[in-house]
Design brief:
heterodimer, A: mainly alpha, Cytochrome Bc1 Complex, Chain D, domain 2, 4 helices, 51% helix, B: alpha/beta, five-stranded parallel β-sheet, four-stranded parallel β-sheet, 11 helices, 33% helix
Chain lengths: 89, 422
């Protein structure tokens, strides 16, 4: 019984719990804005976000502020954030 | 025809039943957990909404029917923006199912875990989140009391004070002097005084070009200093004079009747005088016993729980958040991180170490924005800068870069307003 409970509830929880740093993004990248100046990130493919963050970090992709922010996250953290963002409505 | 109960369907039913039971236990635990949030600004409203999304029943205590946002209120003073653009309401938050209690919280009983409201009623809590913002310290600068603030506005809590300073600036003659007193650290919105000086200079250059602006500062350096000073040189040459602490800039007394600020070295009379005075955490934080001798609130950087009173969390400007500046962006990020921690604690889970971001935009002119950003994580008991990340906009950047940051500044305000109040 306990095992059954865990298999049903744990994945649901894991999806809902945002990894460190993930919730701060929407302060600028607000979801669901069609005419957004800053692109929404919810529902984007994870690879796209991971790639952009790597390019911001190395300076390959020009930025005003994301170059400074991207340097604060490791690849592993970025992958977790990107995965969570991709699952958000 | 009813399907025969096979072993397989029986097992399926058991699993679903177990899941339902677990779900209802979780829901029951959450429904019986009472979380009260005090303060409906960017920090408190964010935290309340996040906790509600996590399945908790939330009471949000806010006395003001309209919240006037501070970010961009300097543009109101400079005549670039109507005050209505700053006015936000909790209607959508309330419609979303949060119990908005439109009263002032007057007292907290940490032992009984109870918030007492102005009408004598009370709210019990398992976890309390305080996001009270700042109070002006009317006891800190001799001569600067509430009566003086009606003559020399601080305009550091947006609303009537913002409009008052706007009107004074409008009424000033060409050739007049705008004098500002800037406070020592820490205070709400570290780049704010210098953004204000910039936008006031923009107004003066446009409408009253013979006027001057004097900043008397209780510090020797300030946020985004190189960027501000380079922009002043470029856009407003000879218009803004900044007097640092070591050059005698610290205002030690205010003579409101004479519209004069007093330093150790002289008296400075202005046609418009803006005093940005020392501040502390909002009143309820003092009353609840979560503020220390500095007037601000020491917190655990993982959970935002007070170091002084268990069960009470403090976010936003009122908190001592280490490297994080007192900004709306910080308050929003902290509101989310605190909500995750509170939800975890109420579910009996050890909270994960958070990572937070802050980005503060300042306008030097309507089409000239600059920013400072940072990424923060708990270290040595404080929220510390992640090394190698963050910093200010580049000192040498083309006008297109400044224009882009001005656009992003406005976009940020629209996005955060929608996220928190929409």
């Amino acid at each position: 019984m306990a095992v059954a409970t865990m298999t049903v509830t744990v994945p649901a929880m894991a999806q809902n719990v945002a990894p460190p740093g993930a919730t701060a993004c929407s302060g600028c990248h607000g979801p669901g804005i069609s005419d957004a100046v800053v692109p929404p990130l919810h529902g984007r493919p994870p690879g796209e976000i991971v790639g952009a963050m790597q390019d911001f970090r190395t300076g390959q992709r020009p930025a005003t502020v994301m170059d400074r922010i991207a340097k604060g996250f490791t690849d592993e953290e970025t992958r977790a954030i990107a995965s969570w963002l991709s699952q958000q409505p | 025809m009813p399907q025969a109960l096979t072993r397989r369907t029986l097992l399926k039913t058991a699993v679903v039943g177990a899941a339902a039971a677990a779900f209802s236990r979780r829901t029951a635990a959450q429904a019986s957990s009472k979380v009260v949030v005090v303060g409906g600004g960017f920090g408190g409203a964010t935290c309340a909404r996040e906790l509600q999304r996590a399945g908790f029943a939330i009471s949000l205590v806010e006395a003001n029917a309209v919240y006037t946002a501070c970010p961009f209120s300097n543009a109101v003073i400079a005549g670039l923006r109507p005050i209505e653009a700053q006015q936000l309401k909790l209607d959508a938050v309330e419609k979303g199912g949060i119990a908005v209690v439109r009263q002032r919280a007057t007292r907290v009983d940490p032992q009984a875990r109870r918030v007492i409201l102005a009408d004598g009623s009370s709210l019990d809590y398992d976890r309390l989140v305080l996001s009270p913002g700042i109070d002006i310290r009317f006891d800190a600068l001799p001569g600067y009391d509430e009566a003086a603030a009606a003559i020399m506005p601080h305009a550091w809590k947006a609303g009537e004070q913002t409009i008052l300073l706007r009107r004074q600036l409008e009424a000033m003659d060409d050739g007049g002097i705008f004098v500002m007193a800037a406070p020592a650290n820490p205070f709400r919105c570290p780049p704010g005084p210098y953004e204000r000086a910039s936008l006031v200079a923009h107004y003066l250059k446009t409408h009253k070009p013979r006027s001057k602006l004097l900043i008397l500062d209780a510090k020797d350096s300030f946020s985004k200093q190189r960027l501000f000073q380079a922009a002043w040189q470029d856009l407003y040459p000879g218009m803004i004079e900044w007097v640092s602490l070591s050059s005698g800039g610290k205002v030690i007394e205010v003579d409101a009747k004479a519209n004069t600020l007093v330093t150790d070295f002289g008296r400075h009379k202005g046609d418009v005088v803006n005093v940005i005075p020392p501040q502390r955490a909002g009143e309820i934080a003092q009353v609840a016993g979560v503020a220390d001798r500095t007037g601000w609130c020491p917190i655990d950087p993982v959970t935002f729980e007070s170091r002084l009173q268990p069960g009470i969390h403090v976010i936003g400007d009122a908190s001592i958040a280490g490297g994080m500046p007192k900004s709306a962006f910080s308050a929003n990020a902290q509101g989310k991180a605190c909500a995750a921690a509170v939800a975890g604690l109420l579910r009996g889970k050890a909270p994960a170490e958070p990572k937070l971001i802050n980005t503060c935009y300042s306008l030097v002119a309507p089409d000239y924005g600059i920013s400072v950003a940072g990424v923060y994580t708990p270290r040595n008991g404080l929220l510390a800068d992640v090394e190698g990340a963050g910093g200010t906009s580049p000192v040498n950047a083309p006008p297109s870069f400044r224009a882009q940051e001005a656009v992003y500044a406005e976009a940020w305000f629209q996005t955060i307003s929608r996220e928190v109040y929409g």
